[in-house]
Amino acid sequence: MAAPTTAKVRIAARLRPRLPGEAPDDAVHVVHGESSCGSTSTFSGNASGSGENTSGASGSYISVANPRDASQIFRFPITSCYDADATQAEIFNADVRPLVDVARGGVTVTIFAYGVTSSGKTHTMQGTPADPGVIPRVVQALFAPSSQKDEKTEVAVSYIEIYKDDVYDLLVARENAPKLPVRENDAGAVFVAGLATAPVGSAAEFDKVYSTATARRSVGATLLNRASSRSHAVLTLTLRITTATAVREGKINLVDLAGSENNKLTGNDPSRMAESSAINKSLSVLGQVVHALNTGASRIPYRNAKLTRILQDALGGSSVGLLICNLAPGAKFRQDTLNTLNFAVRTKNIENKPVVNEREIRAPQPVAAPPPKIDLARVAVGGRPSLVPRPAGRSSAFGLGTNRLSIAGLGAGASKEKEKEKEKEPAAPGLSEAEIDARISRAVEVEVARRLAERERELAALEAGSSSGKSRSPKKDAKVPGLSPLLKRHKDLDNELQARLQELERKFERGNKESVLADVLSPVSKKKTGRAYVALARAHSDKGDLQVALDLYRRAETYVPDNVKLKERIIEIEWAVKNGKTFKASPKRAKKKKEGKGKKEAEADGVEAQPEAQEMDLDERMADHEAHHSDDQMEVDEVETSLTGREAFGTELTNTGSKRSFLVAGGDAGMQTPAKRPKRAKQHSVVVIESDEDDEFVPDAAPRKSRRRIGLAMA
Ligand SMILES: Nc1ncnc2c1ncn2[C@@H]1O[C@H](COP(=O)(O)OP(=O)(O)OP(=O)(O)O)[C@@H](O)[C@H]1O
User: Fold this and answer.
1) Within 13 Å and on the Cβ side, how many CA atoms surround 19?
2) DSSP 623
3) Which of 358, 386, 413 is the C-terminal boundary of a domain?
């Protein structure tokens, strides 16, 4: 099945029936259009993916009376809408089943249930044994005898919950389940590191795994729901479909979001309140992400919550998405119903670009001799070698495009015997898994040989350019008697991979520590923290302490990931460190007091009065920016960084007019803190920041004051 080039997020809305004890409410209605809502909508899977997303194309809508003025009726056109009588089967057949086929075609599909607490999200996704919801029905469909008999389907499951913005593996007993980090691989795919994956061979096997895992989910009683989910749950089904000619890998993410809560109504105690605020915060970030995508913002705040990071692919990424908005009847939920429907209407404008994850299988070529063994776990199909470690027995839940299609990958978590059996199993008629691996090895070899040759050429060129002629050529070292050039290259490859892996590990660790901080800081504080690190880095770079400077510049990057000049600086210093060179930052701009002087006068002061010098040095500009922003309300008061590892962050942040701006370098007595610059006229600072120099720091999208209303129409 061809994947659509773009597909808007599909929206469904479901009004749950009144529960015993709830007062009758006539304010929310599902109005079906000409074609009955929920029974005729289909997923076209075409290039635009749009037909079904044209608001109200079916003429269906949800009408809600304004809680403040009942004479006003808001109407929300939504193609798939379900009233209180709709059955689980109806929803599944109309909106979900078509997406199962899309996933079988090698695409990632994400279905999430959204709505206020007790609106029926868990009922929709999970259901009950007597009335199963989306999840068990999807699994039934996957294991139903396929209409395409020549396909082999393998399914693996992983299951996480995001509880108070921490990720836990629900397949692992809670006492053995540490918080898991969310990471990004080389290809930019987000994944949960160290997540367990369980292969399931039948619906019954799945039920066993799923019910054990679901029992671990954080659930608690509130006044609005006796069994309220206190976490977001994401179940991922990874599909590996093998046909005679191709192997496809699709994914289905089934997301049961925690519901937004009004603490006054839920009657939450302090521990519930903490959960509640984490839930509301993550949902608010979800709203911000949707808003940013809708307004075409340059920065989408995915990183502000684990939930949005993990759902990144479903929101403006390469996944096909379905959002099921659950609505609860009743006056007390009215405002939430309006919020949910507004969210729905905004979300349906989000466009994804689904990608088909498919690999062709060709007839095997005779293999004369097995090529030298490469660690195939590190090799990504169709791309460069993946350097992200894939621990045995575990695999990532998210990420598209570069996942290796290996039975071993799917079978992670299976017993060793099962793994062995699977390894022996042919991946497709005519081509065994070992042969596929051999082919990948050869492809990697060719690529590595090419890169090594390139590197040797570069070294030779460097050597030729060296005037002393004394430097030893690594090329000469390469001539190891008894080793063929190919084997020698593999040796180099291993070293290279090792070094790269270690570097990545360091980066991940550093990234985790920093991202925790980055997550909690406001955009202004992030910029200031970034600047503080840059200033510190600059001081070390001036002292010639390049490795430390590099580390600090990288930390700065965590806070200001979009800063191009900073990235350039990092590359320059990396190069200098790697090649044992000294690094000299571009000269600082002439001081302000010199600006009024004529050229000659300035030269006499030892300052080059060249126009180019108007461009400030990176660190200067950042510091300058800070000094000029006298009306920034928040400021990094103190950055205490010990070069021996001790770190303390003064992230807070004064709201008073008297602000300190200094850095303290703990553990480095010799290091002076940059003195605070005198404040300049505000007008000038605006010029500096808003001039083309402003690309030094691309500020985070400022929170918008005005709210855009889309699709809200008076009936
Ligand atoms: N369509 C429905 N038919 C019958 N009962 C329903 C339906 N939807 C929800 N319910 C019932 O409403 C109650 C609340 O539903 P549920 O727990 O699924 O809400 P939720 O949105 O997941 O809440 P929370 O966010 O607090 O976890 C449950 O008792 C559930 O059985």
Assistant:
1) 11
2) H
3) 358
Q: Which of 401, 358, 418 is nearest to 156 (CA)?
A: 418
Which domain covers residue 487, as residue numbers? Answer: 363-502
Residue ranges in 385-484 assigned as alpha helix (H): 407-410, 416-424, 433-465, 474-477
Positive or negative: CA dihedral 413, 148, 138, 1: positive
- Residue of the CA atom closest to atom 9 of ligand 1: 120
Domain boundary, last residue among 316, 342, 358: 358
CA dist list (Å): 554 to 200, 557, 559:
42, 5, 9
In sequence order, the 6+-apart residues with CB closer than 8 A to the CB of 608 are 587, 590, 602
Most distant pair of Cα atoms in the chain: their distance: 92
DSSP, res 377: G
Counting atoms of ligand 1 from 1, which one is nearest the CA of 257? 25
Q: Are residues 222 and 307 in the same domain?
A: yes
Q: Is the Cβ atom of 218 under 6 angstroms away from ligand 1?
A: no
In 3D, which of 53, 47, 48 has the Cα closest to residue 12?
Answer: 53
Check whether residue 669 and residue 692 sit in a common domain. Answer: yes
Joined together, the tokens standing for residue 317 give 């990424």
Which pLDDT does position 291 carry in this prediction? Answer: 87
Q: What does the pLDDT read at residue 574?
A: 81
Residue nearest to atom 16 of ligand 1 (CA): 120
Question: Which residue among 131, 161, 225 is best mutated to probe the pocket of ligand 1, counting the most ligand atoms within 8 A of its Cβ?
Answer: 225
Dist. CA 358–CA 631, nearest whole Å:
54
Ligand 1 closest atom vs CA 224: 26
Alpha carbon of 645 to ligand 1 centroid (Å):
49
180, 197 Cβ separation under 8 angstroms: no
Burial class (CB in 10 A: 0-12, 13-18, 19+), 619: buried
Instruction: Retrieve residue 460's tokens.
Output: 């030779």
Nearest residue (by CA) to ligand 1, atom 4, is 17
Instruction: Looking at the CA of residue 230, tell me the nearest atom of ligand 1.
Output: 27
Task: Decide if the complex's ipTM is over 0.90.
Answer: yes
Q: Are residues 193 and 61 in the same domain?
A: yes
Residue 488 in tokens? 């020698």
Statement to judge: residues 498 and 584 lie in one domain: no
Residue numbers in the chain where pLDDT is lower than 50: 1, 3-4, 35-57, 371-429, 467, 469-487, 591-617, 619-715
118 is in an annotated binding site: yes
CATH number of the domain encompassing residue 74: 3.40.850.10
Residue 484 assigned to a binding site? no
Cβ atoms of 673 and 538 within 8 Å: the answer is no
Q: What are phi and psi of 445, to 5 degrees?
A: -55, -45
In the numeric block, which tokens belong to residue 621? 């500009």
- pLDDT score recorded for residue 266: 54
* Rounded-to-integer distance, Cα 93 and Cα 86, Å: 12
